[in-house]
Specification:
Number of domains: 2
Strand order of the largest sheet: 4-6-7
Shape: elongated
Order of helices and strands: EHEHHEHHEEHEEHHHHHHHHEEHHHHHHH
Largest sheet: 3 strands, antiparallel
CATH superfamily of the largest domain: Fumarase/aspartase (Central domain)
Oligomer: single chain
Radius of gyration: 27 Å
Helix content: 55-70%
Length: 512
């Protein structure tokens, strides 16, 4: 994939490709002209000596302290060094690639006042696989993700650490640059602040989690359809009229998806009419469109929010040079605002965690329906020789454990705030905390849905020779390429991992 950055057109799909190293990334020519014009304005103000935040003053509550011209480079370097106070595990290399591209995109809008050299070196890190070590923790989400972004910037000035070279070894930032044939930057006025102000760390983690969540939501429909067939559930709750009269888009989409997956089912035909003793199926089966649909609607909102933020100018202060769509301003200026505040992202990622937790809780209940003989009418824990074999007993326990953990992480981070910077930064978003929570919930959800697929496949085997719906059969066949039917107890964690790894393939098999 070829990505041309200009600060206005980056998509989540492009970010996904970039995080996997599958993209060529460059700066649009028009963006370079905006960079040069904004930089000329910054240089004029720096030369004039007029006190301007981010150029020749201190930061935060030290904004009233003027810095002499001969100390401006040192000011920017000190900012990066002092703000690199992160802790915890490093962000994954996929997330750091996304972080680099996101940061390059926002700088390419020409509203941050950096030189082209800054942007060029940032993209060279991506191209040459020099990936800064960026600790996950230390951001309160305003003024943006200061600590993570400072760790990213450290490598640009030849400090910090990076994964680079053969095998992605961890080494000093200076060694990583040298090994890649790159030279460190000497930051000029405003550039240090431009590198650390923004919401790109929470976006990198949250954006990749969202793309994963969208796949899991589709996989959850497939798992639900497999369970419905394995339990000989009714297809009538998915009739279009039921969902049309309620009106929620996601609900109707899921019902239509289930109808497609269940189409032409021999199992369903076998228990129609007087041969079926069930009056109503449990909620976890017949309310799948209502629950899964609400998840889809939430993910749609999260995607809209993150897609806007991908191309948002989140620096402070912002540099408005003449032209380039700023005609509503009386003059060119550098002005402080609050676009670095992560509240829109924090709230959206909390919704993501809540939505994916709901997918887990209903999926776990369907697994219980499958393994409980009093509910399924099948062998206890889906094993022929129960007692000697425990079958899928603990698969349900693992599903319950993950769903319970996710409920804890579903508590919102965005409602919390702890003032910082001596009261100047008195309301913050906790956006990075929301992103990290959402990522964990999404990881749990993938495993929980994989467990349902695995258990439902075992239960479907018991319905042979009757065939399930066409989509369900396709999913079952794709799963069985990776995990065979279980006749005797074996290490279930291997099966769960195999299904989780094959989730994309299983879902793709149902799309034909």
């Amino acid at each position: 994939m070829h990505i041309v950055l200009d600060g206005t057109r980056l998509t989540l799909e492009q970010l996904q490709a970039a995080c996997e190293g599958r993209a060529q990334v460059e700066i649009a020519p028009g963006a370079r002209e905006r960079l040069r014009e904004a930089r000329r304005l910054v240089d004029r103000i720096a030369e004039s000596g007029v006190p301007t935040y981010g150029i020749n003053t201190g930061f935060g509550t030290l904004a009233e302290v003027s810095i002499p011209k001969n100390e401006l480079r040192r000011l920017q370097r000190n900012l990066i060094l002092s703000h690199a106070a992160g802790t915890g595990r490093p962000m994954s290399q996929r997330e750091v690639r996304a972080l680099i591209v996101l940061r390059a995109n926002v700088l390419s809008r020409g509203l941050s006042g950096v030189r082209e050299e800054v942007l060029d070196l940032l993209l060279e890190l991506y191209r040459r696989s020099v990936l800064p070590v960026v600790p996950e923790k230390g951001s309160v989400g305003a003024s943006g993700d200061l600590a993570p972004l400072a760790h990213l910037a450290l490598v640009l000035i030849g400090e910090g650490e990076a994964f680079a070279g053969p095998g992605g070894a961890r080494m000093s930032g200076a060694a990583a640059l040298s090994g890649a044939g790159l030279s460190p930057l000497v930051l000029e006025a405003k550039e240090g602040l431009a590198l650390v102000n923004g919401t790109q760390a929470m976006q990198a983690v949250g954006g990749l989690a969202l793309v994963e969540a969208e796949l899991i939501a589709e996989a959850a429909d497939v798992a639900a359809a497999m369970t419905i067939e394995a339990l000989m559930g009714s297809h009538k709750p998915f009739l279009p009229a039921i969902h049309r009269v309620r009106g929620h888009r996601g609900q109707s989409e899921v019902a239509a998806h289930l109808r497609k997956l269940l189409a032409n089912s021999e199992i369903n035909a076998s228990h129609q009419g007087h041969s079926c003793e069930k009056v109503q199926d449990p909620y976890s089966l017949r309310c799948a469109p209502q629950v899964h649909g609400a998840v889809r609607d939430s993910l749609r909102f999260v995607r809209e929010t993150l897609s806007i933020e991908l191309n948002a100018a989140t620096d402070n202060p912002l540099v408005f040079a003449r032209g380039h769509g700023h005609d509503d301003l009386p003059e060119e200026l550098i002005v402080s605002g609050g676009n670095f505040h992560g509240q829109p992202i924090s709230q959206a990622l909390d919704f993501l965690a809540i939505a994916l937790t709901q997918l887990q809780t209903i999926s776990e209940r369907r697994v219980e329906q499958l393994v409980n003989p009093a509910l399924s009418g099948l062998h206890a824990f889906l094993t022929q020789n129960s007692g000697l074999n425990s079958g899928f007993m603990i698969a349900q326990v693992t599903s319950a454990a993950l769903a319970s953990e996710s409920k804890i992480y579903a508590h919102p981070a965005c409602v919390d705030t702890i003032p910082s910077s001596a009261g100047r930064e008195d309301h913050v978003s906790m956006g990075m905390a929301a992103a990290l929570k959402a990522r964990t919930v999404v990881e749990n959800a993938r495993t929980v849905v994989a467990i349902e697929l695995l258990v439902a496949a075992q239960a479907l085997d018991a319905r042979a020779p009757l065939q399930a719906g066409e989509g369900v059969c396709a999913a079952h066949a794709a799963l069985r390429k990776h995990v065979p039917h279980m006749d005797e107890d074996r290490e279930l964690h291997k099966d769960i991992s195999a299904v989780s790894a094959a989730l994309d393939e299983i879902v793709a098999a149902t799309r034909g």
